[in-house]
Write a structure and sequence with these properties.
By secondary structure, this protein is an all-alpha fold. Helix content is 83%, strand content 0%.
Length: 227
């Protein structure tokens, strides 16, 4: 081990690091897309649908926003996961199975936060826009789809991207279900090669570069929207 330096270890293990980063990006990407779609449906339930649907959406959002993400992951790993294994005969030690559990857990959790962002975005669109659409002969559903939501999402892009950055950082919590994401990969490699501190710093640098780049894009979008 004395013949190895940090950079030589990094060069030898970069395929494992890239594989871990791919896991992180997969969880982030799926959770963002599913979270926004499901979050939009929840927001619409609370704003436009009958009370039973609105109550369900409110209960869902308030529940997930009131519990820690790590607890949701543990629920899926210790309760839902074993149940699915028994019903469908799945292998719980399989990495793909744990990856799916992480994707579902993050998607359901983040949908609650996206729902509040989207609900605020829809409410920010002037009521006159909806009235004008109805006056042109559109149904309420058409007005929502073609007039309200496009304007709302344009206003929400910076907030949605910012929530995506937070989600990307939170994916490091998948260590609790023994899923090897980028952070866990760096931790394991650093520990096995006596460069634990160096690899933790390296992981922090990578997270910083990615988050800073996206944050810069968010600020650019915000400045464009102000024009």
């Amino acid at each position: 081990m004395s013949d190895y330096t940090f950079f030589s270890v990094l060069a030898d293990t970069y395929p494992t690091l890239l594989k871990g980063l791919w896991v992180t990006l997969q969880v982030t990407g799926v959770a963002v897309v599913v979270g926004i779609v499901w979050g939009t449906m929840l927001a619409i339930m609370r704003l436009f649908m009958p009370k039973p649907f609105a109550w369900f959406a409110a209960l869902y959002v308030n529940t997930f926003r009131s519990i820690p993400l790590i607890m949701v992951l543990m629920w899926f790993y210790l309760i839902i996961g074993p149940g699915m294994q028994k019903i469908f005969g799945l292998d719980g030690s399989n990495t793909s199975f744990r990856l799916v559990l992480a994707m579902v857990a993050f998607s359901l959790f983040e949908a609650a936060y996206y729902s509040e962002i989207i609900r605020a975005g829809i409410s920010s669109v002037k009521s006159g826009q909806n009235s004008a659409a109805l006056a042109l002969g559109m149904t309420r559903a058409q007005a929502l789809r073609y007039v309200i939501l496009p304007q709302a999402f344009r206003n929400m892009v910076p907030l949605l991207l910012t929530q995506g950055i937070i989600l990307f950082q939170d994916t490091s919590l998948v260590y609790i279900i023994s899923l090897t994401d980028f952070f866990r990969a760096t931790d394991i490699i650093g520990y096995n090669n006596d460069y634990k501190t160096e690899f933790i710093i390296f992981a922090g640098l990578v997270y910083f570069l990615i988050c800073f780049s996206v944050s810069t894009g968010v600020r650019y979008i915000q400045s464009r929207n102000k024009i």
